[in-house]
Write a structure and sequence with these properties.
By secondary structure, this protein is mainly β. It is built from four helices and 40 strands. A hairpin with a 4-residue loop joins strand 13 and strand 14. The radius of gyration is 22 Å and the shape is globular.
Length: about 500
C-alpha cells in the first residue's frame, strides 16, 4: 500500500461541526507519516507496511468529531505528540430551517502520544467543562521543552482554561504557566514564544516568551502597530496564524502579515510588522495565514496564506455575511529568504497543513472553510486532499500567475495590500474609481530588519485606469488619499 493511499481525496463524511475541517498536523517522523482528519476525528499513522487509525476512543464511546484544526503536533525521538480537541460522542442538535447547531457538552481538549516502536496510542491529558455552548481552551500548539522534557501547550480558542500550560508526558500532570491566552508559538533561541491574545476578536497584541532555563516570562507588547509597521500603517484585526524561528529571529504570522524580530530583547532588534496580503481593516476581510503551519525549507521559510479559512452563511446581518464569504485572491505559498519574499505556489480555498518528506513537500488542502454561528452541519462539507511537490521544483520554478482584488468599502483610507512582486515579469494594476483620488504605493523588503525602499504617489481619475508596476520589485502596499466605497483595484501578476 505504501503512502499512495494518503493521496486519495477525502469527500464528505459524518462529523458534526462548523463547515469543514481538513487534514491537520502533517508530520513525517522516522518513516511514519501522521495526520489527523478533521472533522471525522481520525488520527492516521501511515508506514510503507500499513496504516493505523485511532478514533479517540480513550475519550468516549463515539462516534467522534473534531480532532485538530491548528496543527498541534511535535515529534521527539520515538514519540509523536499530537493534540487538539474532539467531540466524543458528537452531539448534533439538529436544524431549524436552514440553520444548525451542535452541543458542546462532550467536547474535550486533548494531548495524546503515539509510540513509533510499539505503534500504540496513549491519552496523556484531557480537559472539558461540560457546557452545551461553551468549551475549554483547545490545544492549538505543542512545543517539546528539551530542557525539562515536558510539553508546552498553547490554549487560546475557547472560553475557559486559556493560556500556556506545561504537561508532564509521563504523569499527565498539567500546570498553567501563563494566564494570557496564546494560540500559536515556536522555540526561539532558548525560549518558547507564543502570541498574546487577551482579546480574541482583536487578535495578537504581543509575544510572550518562556525562558526554558530560568523558567521566567519575558513579554513584549505592541502598543502602536503603525509605529513598528514597515509601511507606517496599522493593522486592526490580527488573528493569529503560526510561528517559526529562523535567522535568529522570531516570525509570527497573522491576519494582515507577519511580525519579525527579537521579542525577548527588543533593544537589540525590535520586531517589525510586514504587511502581506492585507485586504482591509475590517474584521470580516479574508485571506490570512490562519489554521495552517510554516516550514523551514532550503534554509528559508515557506508560509501559506489562505484564501477562505473562515466563513459565515447564516447571521442577522446578511450584508456582512456576503462580505465575509467573498474570495478576493487565491491561497498562496510565500517563500521568505531575506531580503526577498516570493510567491512560489497558488492554490484553492485553504492549505491546512504542510510537511517535508524526503525531497517532497506535502501540502494538505481543503475546498471549504470553517463556518460559524448557526452553520453547523452533521457532515464535513469539504473535500480534503494532499498534493506532493518536489522541493527543488517548488523553490526554483517561476512564480505562478496570481490575481488579487481590493475593494474601497473594505480598505477605507487605511494601508492595504502587501503584494510580493519578486519573480514576476508582468505586474499590473487595473483601477476603477468613482472620483479623482491619490494612490500611494509603498515598496519594502523582507530583510532583517525589513525596510521601506520607496514611496510613490499616483493621481487616479474617475473611471478605469491601468498602472504598470514594472519599477517595483519588492513587496508593495497601497493607500487611498480619500475613502471611495466604489473603488476597486485588481493586481495581475504573471
Amino acid at each position: 500500500m505504501g503512502f499512495e493511499r494518503f493521496f486519495e481525496l477525502r469527500p464528505s463524511r459524518y462529523g458534526p461541526e462548523w463547515g469543514s475541517g481538513g487534514i491537520f498536523g502533517l508530520k513525517y517522523c522516522r518513516g511514519t507519516l501522521y495526520y489527523t482528519l478533521a472533522f471525522e476525528a481520525e488520527a492516521h499513522f501511515i508506514e510503507e507496511s500499513g496504516e493505523n487509525v485511532y478514533r479517540f476512543t480513550a475519550l468516549g464511546p463515539g462516534p467522534a468529531s473534531g480532532g485538530d484544526t491548528y496543527n498541534a503536533v511535535d515529534c521527539v525521538d520515538d514519540t509523536i505528540f499530537f493534540g487538539g480537541w474532539v467531540h466524543n460522542p458528537a452531539l448534533y442538535k439538529g436544524k431549524v430551517g436552514f440553520k444548525g447547531e451542535i452541543d458542546f457538552r462532550a467536547k474535550f481538549s486533548h494531548v495524546h502520544s503515539y509510540d513509533l516502536n510499539k505503534k500504540t496510542v496513549k491519552l496523556i491529558w484531557s480537559d472539558t467543562i461540560r457546557d452545551d455552548s461553551l468549551w475549554a481552551g483547545e490545544v492549538s500548539e505543542i512545543i517539546f521543552d528539551p530542557v525539562s522534557s515536558k510539553l508546552l501547550i498553547a490554549r487560546g480558542d475557547g472560553h475557559m482554561n486559556l493560556g500556556v500550560y506545561e504537561i508532564d508526558p509521563k504523569s499527565g500532570k498539567a500546570e498553567r504557566l501563563s494566564e494570557t491566552p496564546g494560540l500559536k508559538g515556536s522555540l526561539f533561541l532558548d525560549y518558547a514564544c507564543f502570541d498574546m491574545q487577551p482579546e480574541w476578536v482583536r487578535g495578537v497584541n504581543g509575544i510572550q516568551c518562556f525562558d526554558l532555563v530560568s523558567r521566567k516570562w519575558v513579554k513584549y507588547t505592541v502598543k502602536d502597530w503603525s509605529s513598528i509597521s514597515v509601511d507606517g500603517g496599522g493593522v486592526e484585526y490580527r488573528g493569529s496564524g503560526y510561528a517559526i524561528s529562523a535567522y535568529a529571529r522570531y516570525y509570527h504570522f497573522m491576519r494582515g502579515g507577519f511580525l519579525v524580530g527579537n521579542p525577548v530583547e527588543p533593544e537589540l532588534e525590535e520586531p517589525r510588522f510586514v504587511r502581506v496580503l492585507d485586504f482591509g481593516g475590517s474584521l470580516y476581510s479574508q485571506l490570512s495565514p490562519q489554521r495552517s503551519n510554516a516550514l523551514p525549507v532550503g534554509g528559508g521559510v515557506l508560509a501559506p496564506f489562505n484564501a477562505y479559512t473562515h466563513g459565515i452563511l447564516h447571521m442577522d446581518n446578511v450584508d456582512v455575511a456576503r462580505v465575509i464569504n467573498r474570495v478576493r485572491g487565491p491561497s498562496v505559498l510565500l517563500y521568505i529568504t531575506p531580503p526577498q519574499a516570493r510567491i512560489v505556489g497558488v492554490y484553492g480555498a485553504k492549505i491546512t497543513s504542510m510537511a517535508k518528506m524526503g525531497s517532497k513537500i506535502l501540502i494538505a488542502y481543503n475546498t471549504s472553510p470553517n463556518l460559524g454561528g448557526l452553520d453547523s452541519t452533521p457532515i464535513d462539507v469539504g473535500v480534503r486532499g494532499l498534493t506532493a511537490v518536489d522541493e527543488d521544483t517548488l523553490l526554483n520554478r517561476g512564480s505562478p500567475p496570481a490575481t488579487f482584488k481590493f475593494e474601497g468599502g473594505m480598505v477605507g483610507s487605511e494601508n492595504f495590500g502587501g503584494i510580493p512582486l519578486s519573480g514576476y515579469k508582468n505586474k499590473k494594476l487595473k483601477i476603477s474609481a468613482s472620483k479623482p483620488n491619490t494612490l500611494t504605493v509603498y515598496e519594502y523588503d523582507a530583510g532583517l530588519p525589513p525596510s521601506l525602499v520607496s514611496t510613490e504617489k499616483y493621481k487616479v481619475g474617475g473611471g478605469l485606469e491601468r498602472v504598470e508596476l514594472d519599477g517595483f520589485h519588492g513587496i508593495v502596499s497601497f493607500k487611498l488619499g480619500e475613502p471611495d466605497a466604489n473603488f476597486t483595484l485588481h493586481v495581475y501578476l504573471y
